[in-house]
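I am writing to request your help with a piece of structural work I have in hand. A protein sequence and the structure tokens that stand for its backbone fold form the material at issue. Please examine both parts with care and let me know of anything in them that strikes you as inconsistent. The record follows directly beneath this note.
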Amino acid sequence: MTPYTLEQFNQLAPRLRQRQLLDCCYCNRWADQVQEFAPFASVEQLQNIAARVWAYLDEGDYLEAFAAHPRIGDLQRLQEKFTSAEQGQVALADASTLEELQRFNRAYFETFGFIFIVCASGKPAREMLATIKSRIANSREQEIRNAADEQAKITQLRLGQLFAV
């Protein structure tokens, strides 16, 4: 993502601004609705609007956003699309931890029908593993809520990264 000033972001053509929003959270309805509020008075206003819009979307919208993520521990896809900081310190984990993380990711997907979503920024692989283990016994409804909450955190981080400091 290219860092913008708020003024530059507000002046982007709607299609380009939507592309930047989709890079933060790949959900078309979310990006469309957030964009309706442009121009934004501040980054904080944009982040607040983004969070409010996200809270009122439905499961299909959440699943669209989840599907755009690499699985935690999927290092090949991570390297192709995302920065290593986005998945915490997973790339630094030992082979046995990564294997267990991949095994739990498969089980999670088979159980819930979507990938495990967690805001992993700066977290070690062992913490990710403990989190997935603690959530795998939840109901699907609870996991949709958990994943949506984690997606909201990820989106907030990415929105902040859109702007030059």
